[in-house]
Amino acid sequence: MTSDTIHVDVAVIGAGTAGMHAFSTAHRAGADTVLIDQGPLGTSCARVGCMPSKAVLHAGKRWSTLQSLLPQGAPAQLPAGHTTPQQLWQQALAVRDELVDGNVRNVHQLAGERLLQASARFVAPDTLALSDGRKVQARAFVVATGSQAVRPAGLQAELGQALITTDELFYLPQLPRSVAVMGLGAIGLEMGLALSRLGVQVAAAGRSPVLAKIADPEVAQAATDYFSQQLPLALSEAQITVHRDGDGVLMQAGPLRHRAQYLLAALGRKPRWQGLDIAQAGVQLDDKGRPHLEADSLRCAGSQVFVAGDVSAHRALMHEAGHEGTLAAQQALRALGDGGWKNLPERHRTVPMSIVFSDPDIAEVGTRFDQLPEDVVIGTVRGPGSGRSKLMQAPHHILRLYAQRSSGRLLGASLMCAGGEHLAHQLAWAVQRKETVNTMLELPYYHPSMEEMIDTALREMRRSLRKA
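Structure tokens predicted for Dihydrolipoyl dehydrogenase:
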């Protein structure tokens, strides 16, 4: 591929999860396709997202479990040469590096010579200019450039290298001594807990009144009650100030004051559009310079540009990025209309599902509490009403199931419990398959298991439905 201008059917920009799915879908359909990425290769999930965060959470769980077994109030009596938090940290990062290496190999195996390692910008509705001097002319484009961590300019100027996001956290060779966390969404809560369980001095503050954007008020309260015992938290703080303090930082949020080596800004991620000159593609932009996106087709209005993954800012999760990559490529080929592409099957959206791996896990499935219809019945089970939770001495566990009162059809759920990731999947499958309270009660529930919480909630809901 040495020509100055490369002519293709579809050009995919970004070789992350969404981009790889888009390239694979278009290539398998017989379209002439290229995959463009400026590097470094390796998905955000593998480098700085879901994988290293879970590796560090696992490390924190191992260390905190050991600490919980030591006599309370007595000096730690550990054998010489025992594993340290720093070693666990290094092990977690080594696992991350292995995953990134594997991911990079997968990209090369997938695209081969169709992988163009360069940056790209639009110079016409059908043309990209690459940083290596070549051009790509395509009939359709899939933009899958991902997202980047929000890094407030004022904080950056004030704190310099003491301000980090997960982009830097997972590349620190040494486990921090202390960290102040700003933002208590999923990432802020997960990393605050993981670092605290590894022995790092952590305090966290957020402007939201709830942790991890939990919509259900009863689950939100249970989470706040439990996790505020795990590390110092300040919620609903409109004024969070952070200043340079020697070689570290001082964070103040209401009565909370915390001096730390770093401020971890966990303030979310924003779509990565810069450098693309997307307006040159004919894309219609809003008053903030963002593309108008047709939600069903993932198409940028007025163009042959389709988007997928975090750049769409729809559901910034890895499995959703994969689905969107496939969907965007299918829609692009359908729009081209060649031969059998007109009749390509459309991959439909799956039921929304979000999981915070906070141990106990927090999860929301299907329709969120704040979006429930009036015609709803809710089943609630707490730890004292669950045999397995009693055995685990976990009265903080809670599960809330939602169903439509008129039909009994499951709508969604919110929960906080050990192994909640597994319950969330089962409930997402049930919602997507349009199960009802009665059909779910026909299924087996082993005793004593966490799944019995589902059975108990369903029975409560059935009683309410019978009364109605």
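The chain has three domains: 5-39+117-149+270-343, 153-267, 353-467.
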